[in-house]
């Protein structure tokens, strides 16, 4: 999941659960950079003081000529490695604000022969090997080096090289390092080519804590391939942090500033190493279809499909989309004990278009065509998703009048009225997505997260996520969903073109299970 947060990033650092974002302002003409902090890695506020990066002679380093900051901790001190005019430097700080440059990093072998270095590098936090600090560095391949003073380093062997015919066949550079119970986890960037443009991926490797040059495991599966949803823009990495079993990557994106993407870290190392994935074997029942159109019901004579499902009082309740002789979508109701054999089916629609934004005025006998027609219908109420919150069912659906863009609308009904068939108790619907854009596949979680309602919806090609204070605040005029976060397609995978949420997510002991639809 991603969110746009700030411009022109230099690097990120996590101390406990607090994330610090260092960046240059695009508007302020200053040699100093800025820092903001966040408790969740996405919502940032200014941090105390103005950071200063100073040479030993107190000269301030021009941060506009710096890049590729990597932060770590060593013996209670904060360390930063960075490139300044393409030369690597190391700095130290007690408070994350005042930074003192220790010097330019020098690579020299045991014979004293120096080597040129202009590569991103990172010092391993609080790890020493044979009494020396350890650093991973390089661009193309990643190597290891050792130092007694953090400035002069002795290069070691190459520990990670590109792998042909793999997601990490491009140029590798170190992103972040953090300890795990199995060793040192190194998350690395992969810069490659995708259809003639730069692309980025993230890979993971684990090294032995007692021998940082010894590779223990390397993933065959990328954490991220390309910057999905942003393929048409210039993208460059800002940094990575690991907190609360989540890896957050930060990217500078053309015109958008900094984008943060969360990558949950789940599953065992052995499962990932073996390339194990969630595997579900589904078998269609032989009695399909479970519902068919009814020719004598003019409102559902042509098609029944795309239902919402509720399990309540020992029965499965379906609110399904129906299309009849007038080619307008309405909603019907059926229920079942087992979800297969539906012994209750209401003879009339339980929800029909009532507002201009969903009342189709298209003459189905004419030649009018629209790219938004779907399911054989020329408009109406489409594709419902229902969530119970306390004693109310909230239903979000696609409202389409055949003329303007399909949008998300919301209504609700008391639980008792729903189960007693009082269909006239549906609340007056209101549009919750903004005008001028196609928005579909919407639902709300059944409980709040961090005190807010969570709404999922879809604007091509992403699943969007909004945190909402009050579901009743939507007025259909000025208060709409904003799409603060997004879950993008993966442009080199089976879900490369567009995504859309399926049913409302289900809460499990491992988090919220989201099943989504996708197009390649």
From TrEMBL:
Q: Which Pfam families match?
A: Glyco_hydro_130
- A GO molecular-function annotation: glycosyltransferase activity
Matches recorded under CDD domains: GH130 (cd18614)
Q: Which domain of life is it from?
A: Bacteria
Task: Kindly give the InterPro entries that the UniProt entry links to this protein.
Answer: Glyco_hydro_beta-prop_sf (IPR023296), Mannoside_phosphorylase (IPR007184)
Q: Please indicate if the UniProt record lists Aminoacyl-tRNA synthetase as a keyword.
A: no
UniProt keyword list: Glycosyltransferase, Transferase
Q: Does the keyword Glycosyltransferase apply?
A: yes
Family recorded in the similarity comment = Belongs to the glycosyl hydrolase 130 family.
User: What is this protein called in UniProt?
Assistant: Glycosyl hydrolase family 32 N-terminal domain-containing protein
State the organism named in the record. Candidatus Gottesmanbacteria bacterium RBG_16_52_11
């Amino acid at each position: 999941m991603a969110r746009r947060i700030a411009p022109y990033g230099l690097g990120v650092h996590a101390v406990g659960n607090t994330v610090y974002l260092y960046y240059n302002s695009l508007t302020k003409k200053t040699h100093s950079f800025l820092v903001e902090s966040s408790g969740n890695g996405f919502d940032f506020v200014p941090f105390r003081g103005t950071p200063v990066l100073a040479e030993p002679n107190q000269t301030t380093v021009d941060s506009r000529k710096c890049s590729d900051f990597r932060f770590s901790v060593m013996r209670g001190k904060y360390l930063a490695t960075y490139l300044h005019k393409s030369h690597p430097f190391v700095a130290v700080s007690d408070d994350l604000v005042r930074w003192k440059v220790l010097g330019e990093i020098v690579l020299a072998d045991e014979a004293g022969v120096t080597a040129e270095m202009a590569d991103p590098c990172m010092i391993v936090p609080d790890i020493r090997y044979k009494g020396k600090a350890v650093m991973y560095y390089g661009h193309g391949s990643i190597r290891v080096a050792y130092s007694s003073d953090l400035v002069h380093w002795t290069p070691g062997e190459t520990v990670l090289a590109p792998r042909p015919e793999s997601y990490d066949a491009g140029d590798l550079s170190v992103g972040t390092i953090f300890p795990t119970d199995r060793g040192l986890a190194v998350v690395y960037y992969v810069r490659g080519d995708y259809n003639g443009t730069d692309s980025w991926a993230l890979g993971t490797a684990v090294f032995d804590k007692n021998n940082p040059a010894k590779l223990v495991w390397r993933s065959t599966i990328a954490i991220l391939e390309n910057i999905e949803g942003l393929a048409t823009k210039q993208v460059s990495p800002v940094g990575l942090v690991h907190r609360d079993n989540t890896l957050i990557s930060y990217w500078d994106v053309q015109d958008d500033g900094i984008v943060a993407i969360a990558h949950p870290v789940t599953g065992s190392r052995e499962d990932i190493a073996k390339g194990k994935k969630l595997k579900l074997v589904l078998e269609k029942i032989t009695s399909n279809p479970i519902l068919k159109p009814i020719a004598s019901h003019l409102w559902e004579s042509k098609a029944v499909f795309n239902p919402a499902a509720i399990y309540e009082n020992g029965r499965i309740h379906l609110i399904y989309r129906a299309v009849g002789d007038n080619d307008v979508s309405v909603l019907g109701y059926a229920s079942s004990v087992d979800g297969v054999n539906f012994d209750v089916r209401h003879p009339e629609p339980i929800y029909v278009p009532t507002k201009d934004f969903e009342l189709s005025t298209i003459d189905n006998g004419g030649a009018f065509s629209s790219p938004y027609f779907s399911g054989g219908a020329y408009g109406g109420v489409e594709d419902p998703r229902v969530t119970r919150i306390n004693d109310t069912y909230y239903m979000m659906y696609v409202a389409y009048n055949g003329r303007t863009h399909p949008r998300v609308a919301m209504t609700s009904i008391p639980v008792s009225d729903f189960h007693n068939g009082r269909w006239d108790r549906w609340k007056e619907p209101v549009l919750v997505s903004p005008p001028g854009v196609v928005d579909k596949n919407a639902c709300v979680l059944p409980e709040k997260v961090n005190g807010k309602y969570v709404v999922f919806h879809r604007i091509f090609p992403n699943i969007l996520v909004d945190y909402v204070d009050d579901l009743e605040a939507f007025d259909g005029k000025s208060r709409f969903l904003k799409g603060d976060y997004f879950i993008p397609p993966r442009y080199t995978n089976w879900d490369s073109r567009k995504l859309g949420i399926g049913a409302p997510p289900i809460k499990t002991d491992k988090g919220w299970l989201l099943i989504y639809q996708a197009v390649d």
